[in-house]
Structure formats: structure tokens, C-alpha cells
Amino acid sequence: MILGRAAGSLFRYIQDFHGKEIDVIESGSSPSSCNDFALLITEDSETAASFNPNILLNTLKAEEDMLLNTIVAGGVYIFPETAEKTIDLETSSVYSRRIAYAAGVYTFAAGTTSFETEMGPVPLLISNPELLDHLEGVRLLCQQTGIMEEAFYEALMNYSETALS
Fold it and tell me: Which residue in 89, 80, 61, 82 sits closest to 135, CA to CA?
């Protein structure tokens, strides 16, 4: 599950780019096929809390404590490290792996965006600072679906913010 539409659109694009089939769940529905992954993208924390996800990427300033208690035991909660101060990780009633990520480091020059990675700068067709701040969270989520770093950046370099509009 992804809490945040921009990150959700990017995640879907990367999955499609690499031929991974996922079910997209609309609010109030259930998966329509037997794909390995079902994805709910929402900006409503109450809707998110009603789904009991195995993996949750939270890019919004939402009810983190409430969401932590809805993850399936042994699941994964991916969130911005800036939220660590507001999340009470110790009082969660459910054991889950918690992965904090830092905001992305990027520069704008001559109409191009460069995203700094351990592999060097990656040129992007993205200019939305909110999405750029959560690229690391989307990368960590992609790892949970078997898309590793190089494959993630390959798809990311081909992504345009108008790709799924």
C-alpha cells in the first residue's frame, strides 16, 4: 500500500516498466486476480488503516501510530526519517520491520534534474520536489517487490511526470 498519489504513480510505472503485474485496488474493492502484488494508492489514512497491508509506504504526514498497528505481523513500514520524531515505535501492538529513509538529494540545472545516488548522479525528467523527496522510499518499496537498485534507476530515468497523467 502507498499513502501518497505521486509516489504511487511512480511505483506503478516502475512495476510496469519491468513487466511486473500488480492488481490496483480501488478504495472499497479487493484484488481482481492472482498477481503476486496488490496495490492500494490513497491519501486517506482511514482508508489505509482499513486494509491491513503487508507493506506500507507512507509519504504523507498521516496518523503514523494508527497505521503502524494495521500492518500485518512481520510486515514492512517504510516512512520518511523526519517522521521518526512523531511515531511511537515502541507502543505498536504489531511487530513489523520499520525502514526510515532520508529525503532525496537533487539539483536542478539547465532544465534537467539530477538525483544523487551511491552510483553517481542520475538524470531525471521529474521536477516535483515532493516526489523527489520520496524517491528513496519508492526505491525501498520496489526492493520489496524484487526490483533492485540498478533496475529501479533504469526505469526512473525513463519516467516523466506526465507518464501516468
Answer: 80
Q: How far is CA 136 from the centre of its chain?
A: 8
Distance of alpha carbon 69 from its chain centroid, rounded? 19
Instruction: Calculate Rg over the CA atoms of the chain.
Output: 16
The dihedral sign for the CA sequence 101, 63, 131, 128: negative
Sheet-wide strand order for 106-109:
106-109, 112-117, 120-124
Q: pTM (2 decimals)?
A: 0.87
Backbone angles phi, psi at 17, to 5 degrees: -55, -40
Burial of 118 (0-12, 13-18, 19+ CB in 10 A): exposed
Retrieve residue 7's grid coordinates. Answer: 509516489
Helix (H/G/I), strand (E/B), else coil: 151? helix
How is residue 162 written as a grid cell?
A: 506526465
pLDDT by residue for the chain (165 residues), tens only, comes to: 787 888 988 999 999 999 998 888 765 556 566 666 678 888 887 877 788 888 889 888 766 777 888 888 888 989 999 877 666 666 667 788 889 999 989 998 887 899 998 888 999 988 888 899 999 999 999 999 999 999 999 999 999 876 544
